[in-house]
Amino acid sequence: xxxxxxxxxxQLRFLFASRPAIMGRVLGIVYxxxxxxxxxxxxxxxxxxxxxxxxxxxxxGSALNLNIHFHMLFLDGVxxxxxxxxxxxxxxxxxxxxxxxxxxxxxxxxxxxxxERQGLLERDAESSYLASDxxxxxxxxxxxxHSITYRIAVGPQAGRKVFTLQTLPACEESLDDGVGKVAxxxxxxxxxxxxxxxxKLERLCRYISRPAVSEKRLSLTPNGNIRYQRx
Length: 231
What we know:
By secondary structure, the protein is an alpha+beta fold. 32% of the residues lie in helices and 27% in strands.
């Protein structure tokens, strides 16, 4: 099994938070792009091979900022059908940085086309932006926008950047792993568990399914501020 993590530009995080049905359609696009990559890399077609994945949608980052991103556990290969009705698993090599960049480009292109057809994205000669109809007048949207960009939403310091501390990567992740980045889309696939590594797979499943602050304890200080302490 291999973990694929996809994050999105700020504007799409905002759109997905306010329109979850659209996010579900985008997830289908992302799955098909990665599944097609795995099948072709194994030298197969959709008629002869299959793969599969489980996706958990995380909505927050470690700073409790709104950051919708996909954690997908994909089979690290495909099942090839045989004439006698059996299927055999065929492992494929880990994606290279070049492949991740190409996949991120394909995902960005197809998601953009889909949102244009839905009337949610408009393009000009230089840039793309959300259509005016994509954003309603819900007062919650202002709070969502501030949370995405790490800014204080209300009070005398509204609009100011929040001071944050970046967390260290998980122990099983390597800083040398390739990442594909295109137009605000970021695709990472550097963590995998082989068939016999059951404990690692369990840790990976627990990691992607935990809440953003599951490894921290939240408590109040005497002056009423929230304090985070790793458990």
